[in-house]
Design brief:
Mean pLDDT: 81
Structural class: alpha/beta
Strand order of the largest sheet: 13-14-12-15-16-11-17
Largest sheet: 7 strands, parallel
Low-confidence stretches: 1-29, 518-522, 613-637, 738-749
Shape: globular
Radius of gyration: 29 Å
Length: 749
């Protein structure tokens, strides 16, 4: 066979016994289609092979994180098709995201099993509804409303209930939860009370809005995504001829992520099945983290009770993470309580040993962010790609301090599942309000009784939704409050660093911070919430902010809610392949009283701690037995080189002078440095701040260093940047014209 130029022949695929099983993530993009049905089984481990061969009757696959569950079920389907046992068009595989369904279809094609339907619950139901609607109801299917928010807003207005944008999002989410749990408007208040769910508003009001929303949809002959499932269920229940048609079409069903099935989705699945039992479900109760959307692990946990003759296979060989990471994950679940915990899986790593998980205690949040950024920079310098590193936190409002720290460290980053902090709608609105109040000065009545900068900011932001106490529960209202609270805390820190600062000074500071972070999206370190990290993995993972009140989150009150928080941390731990870091800070800001405590979930796991109930630290060769790495930031006094005042602001410390003190900066040099930085950033394909921040360029233009030692002494010029950019910067400072030759040709960020 002819191969493309420069491509070496591929060695034969080794068998499982010879190490042929690899993480699916690292499989070839263009694998050869197996030559036969038996070849489909090559490379599967014994348990995965057992799944692939279990083609009849109910099958329950309990698959831990990183154990190759998608590999197992796609090879199961492909083997059945290639062996002639399953007809491709008779198989329906369902999952929960379009990404997962697309990945499944792609793998099936690579295995020679094209023609199998792999869809989300909604897309499979919509396809059936569109086909059968003319026969079951007559006419065309009503128009599908893709965004129900506008209709919910109109329903609220008709009920004379005012909702701001974030309340509107929360009420809309609550209506979605009610529908997937098959709760009608009249029953909503009682169901919420029984489930101890935190409703975003008075339950009677939500019930009223919900009923009006349903009435508006009927009046306008439109349906929403939840109706797609409800109407499909109704047709299959009422029209036995249509149900029989569907059951003749689909003989075999596979459900991925079964722990996330809602009661409505389970009802639809039961109707698809009828009285048959050719069903394969795959899931892990320990990864149930979406109960707020209606997901429940009860269907997975009850599967064997409903199907006593089911084949049950456990996948516990973890191909993703090192033994050290797996040991910690097992220890975390070992302290879990509740029904899901009774069915936890003990993972067994199949990888070589790696570094121990690192536990780091910091004095305050900025120190934690800066320490994390330094460690990330060291990993990148050691060869770990930035795209294979993630910083995971509990709520999106935690991102800002890490965005800033990574920017200061010159590390490119990207946010997943959230807008950049300064691009969030509530932050932009707050900026406009603060800017307006700053311009009005004493003429703004809002500020009449506000003394001091933080008080003024609280007064202004109170018009945008900030309150002294956070709103109950989670959702958009809580997210909005957290963002505004972050601005309030920033104002407090700003006044502490610059006594006497005005509202205009704060607005200028916000503008500078925003400008440094409005760079084009680049391939870099991922910043993400733990929820949005589900289904992903990285070589290195930093779990940050692990304090009581954040993990578990403060509004998790019931035992069930606390256990879901533990499972959320477990999901975070199991995202790491090799490097894992867990950190917390004792206080929010420098100089504050350190009264915080590490998360209770780390008791008995982090070195020097005991588990609840008096049990000692988990043993067994894991990385949690070594002494804790406790780092407290101890800074020497930084004095202004002009007036001698102690400096506390990071930007002032970089300049070594107060912001208000006279600057002796060489303006022409500063502009030349900015022009060089822009060219260099474009050349390496990174934002300008990844070369040097504005403050660092200002410090260089003020100091005008004439030697490597002088340049290296400037804050923001580390060893790596000195090696990469030092010669060019010194040439610019010396007024030389050969800067283009000194730009560097490494092509790296």
């Amino acid at each position: 066979m002819l191969l493309p130029c420069g491509q070496l022949p591929r060695p034969p695929l080794p068998t499982w016994q010879h190490g042929g099983v690899t993480a699916a993530t690292h499989s070839s993009l263009f694998p050869q289609v197996p030559e036969s049905a038996d070849a489909v089984l090559d490379g599967l481990d014994p348990e995965q092979r057992e799944v692939a061969l279990a083609l009849h009757g109910p099958v329950c696959v309990l698959a831990g994180a990183g154990t190759g569950k998608t590999r197992a079920i796609t090879h199961r389907i492909a083997y059945g098709v290639r062996a002639g046992i399953l007809q491709p068009t008779s198989v329906l595989a369902v999952t929960f995201t379009n990404r997962a369904a697309g990945e499944m279809r792609g793998r099936l094609r690579q295995l020679g099993a094209a023609g199998v339907q792999a869809r989300t619950f909604h897309s499979a139901a919509l396809r059936q509804l569109q086909y059968f609607w003319p026969k079951a109801v007559g006419g065309e299917l009503p128009r599908l409303v893709e965004r129900k928010v506008q209709l919910v807003a109109e329903a609220a207005a008709r009920c004379r209930i005012r909702l701001d944008r974030n309340e509107l999002r929360d009420v809309t989410s609550e209506i979605e939860w009610a529908k997937v749990t098959q709760t009608v408007p009249a029953d909503y208040p009682a169901v919420v009370a029984k489930s101890q769910r935190d409703a975003p508003r008075d339950t009677a009001e939500i019930s009223q809005i919900y009923a009006m929303y349903e009435q508006l949809k009927r009046d306008r002959s439109v349906i929403d995504f939840e109706d797609v499932l409800l109407l499909t269920v109704a047709i299959l229940q009422d029209r036995h001829d249509i149900a029989d048609h569907v059951r003749r079409q689909y003989q075999h069903f596979v459900v991925d992520e079964y722990q996330d099935v809602s009661p409505l989705q389970q009802r639809l699945l039961d109707l698809w099945l009828g009285d048959r039992d050719n069903l394969c479900v795959v899931g892990d109760a320990s990864q149930t983290i979406y109960s707020f959307t209606g997901a429940t692990p009860e269907h997975l946990l009850n599967f064997r009770a409903r199907h006593p003759n089911a084949t049950v296979v456990k996948l516990v060989r973890d191909y993703r993470s090192t033994p050290q990471v797996v040991h910690l994950a097992n220890g975390l679940l070992g302290q879990a309580r509740g029904r899901a915990a009774e069915h936890r899986l003990e993972l067994v790593s199949q990888r070589e040993k790696g570094p121990e998980p690192a536990y780091t205690e910091y004095g305050d949040e900025p120190a934690e962010a800066e320490g994390t950024a330094r460690r990330i920079r060291d990993l990148i310098a050691a060869g770990v790609p930035a795209g294979e590193i993630a910083v995971l936190y509990r709520v999106n409002s935690q991102s800002e301090v890490y965005e800033q720290a990574l920017s200061d460290a010159g590390v490119p980053y990207q946010l997943r599942g959230a807008e950049r902090f300064f691009e969030r709608a509530e932050v932009r609105e707050a900026g406009v309000a603060l800017r307006g109040a700053a311009r009005a000065g004493g003429n703004d009545s809002l500020l009449d009784d506000a003394e001091g900068l933080p008080s003024q900011v609280r007064a202004v932001l109170s018009t945008k939704g900030w309150t002294t106490e956070p709103p109950a529960g989670s959702g958009a209202m809580r997210d909005r409050w957290e963002s505004l609270a972050a601005l309030v805390r920033l104002a407090e820190d700003f006044e502490q660093a610059k006594p006497g600062a005005t509202l205009s000074d704060l607005v200028a500071e916000l503008d500078e911070r925003a400008a440094a972070q409005h760079a084009p999206a680049v391939q870099g370190v991922t910043l993400a919430s733990l929820h949005s990290a589900k289904g992903l993995e990285w070589d290195a993972v930093f779990l940050v902010g692990l304090t009581e009140g954040m993990m578990p989150i403060t509004y998790a009150r019931t035992d069930e809610q606390i256990e879901e928080e533990r499972r959320l941390l477990y999901v975070g731990v199991t995202r790491a392949r090799f490097h894992l870091s867990l950190s917390w800070s004792l206080s929010r800001s420098p100089g504050s009283r350190g009264g915080r405590r590490p998360s209770r979930f780390l008791n008995g796991l982090r070195p020097g701690s005991a588990a609840l109930g008096g049990r000692g630290t988990v043993g067994g060769g894991g990385g949690v037995e070594r002494p804790a790495v406790t780092k407290r930031r101890r800074r020497g006094l930084a004095l202004c080189r002009v007036c001698g005042k102690t400096l506390t602001d990071a930007g002032e410390m970089k300049l070594m002078r107060c912001e208000d003190c006279p600057s002796d900066m060489d303006e022409a040099l500063y502009e030349r440095l900015r022009d060089w930085r822009a060219d260099r950033a474009k050349e390496i394909g990174q934002p300008a701040y990844c070369v040097f921040t504005d403050k660092t360029l200002m410090a260089i233009a003020e100091a005008v260093p004439g030697s490597e030692g002088e340049l290296a002494g400037i804050s923001g010029v580390g060893v790596r940047k000195m090696d990469r950019f030092g010669e060019a910067v010194l040439a610019i400072c010396a007024g030389e014209d050969r800067v283009e030759e000194l730009g560097g040709d490494d092509g790296e960020a």
